[in-house]
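Researcher: Next sequence.
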Amino acid sequence: MARRRGFFAEMAHQAAVAEKNRQRAQAAAVRDQARRQREAERLRQQLARAEKLVEKEQKQLYIAAMEAEVERLNGELALQLADIDNVLSATLEVDDYVDLEKLRKVAEHPPFQSQHSTPIPPPAPIQVPPEPVYVEPEPPRGVGAVFGGKKKHAEAVAAAQAAHAQAYQQWQQAAAAVPMQQLAQLSEHKQAEDARQANLAADQARYDDECAQRQREVDESNASLDELIRDLAQGTPEAVEEYLGIVFGNSVYPAEWPWPPAYIYDAGTKELSIELEFPAPADLPTERQYKYVRASDEITSSTQTQKEQKERYAGLVNNMTLRTLHEVWEADRGDKVGSISLVGSVAHVDPATGKDTTTPLIAVAVDRSTFAEIDLRRVAPAETLRHLGAVVSKNPHALTPIKLTAGVRAH
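Model: Next structure:
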């Protein structure tokens, strides 16, 4: 037999069950809170790891960018130093002679184009409308023919005939108007076509004028070229100087360097006097190499020694001088220049007075035959200038001036 709890026993039992359920719910809440905390911690750690990875990747990208910048700087520096060190050898790889005939121009005309080039197609001719056809109503049949059908049919026939007569009259009027409409249509098309042809003729005339203008400019340029070729063959000073201007214009130096030189030609003595200007020592790079220092997060550079800077600048003075002499005589196949008197200087600010000044660093006077005996591919430029009797600054980098001497004509 089942035992039944009393009222108070049942109350105690229900209270115990409620407490047990509360404890279970509390435990579940504690476990859920712990689970959420663990999940939050896991997410925080994942985020921290992701941030570290991003930070690491960003740092690597930054370092790569800085190293790429260093590579760019070193590349530019190498090109700058090569421009300085290869001043003489660079010109020995090309022929400095200028074939003036290759400067002759030919007028180049774009193809003629006009939006009015295409003829206007004639319109489709207006057609006479089809003539109306009379259709008589069918007569009644069967019972309808007996009971009033004939009368109704007669009325229908009369109405059809009247309608046909009216339609025929309208058709006659329309047909009679067609020839005038066709004439108006043809006239309108002709006017449009005439306007198109007039516009096309205007475009053609404009194009012809432009072609003629281009041809005139080319003819004038070629006429000037013919005059230059003729005068150069005769050795007129203006022609010789203009030709040498073309030669010097073809000689490529860094854009920031002072070039071309000033010069004047004396036809009587066949001597060319050149005033050559060098870049200032301060205009040349003093860096030897760039590198990125991670510890300080900066790009630093090592500096050329004073010896390197002095030797490089002295070499530039020597090489620019020999290059200029070489380019003149290699280009002068007509033997117009018999001798060259050259003075090379540098423009700078006088540190003593703060004023702009020009300091001569080299002077040389040489005749054509003497220079022709030199093989510039195998020489030491300083020794070559000494051989030519040039006066050279003892320290060009320090802008130590020379004393100017007489030119070739005085020897």
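Model: Residues 407-411 have pLDDT under 50 and may be disordered. Residues 86-96+251-410 form one domain.
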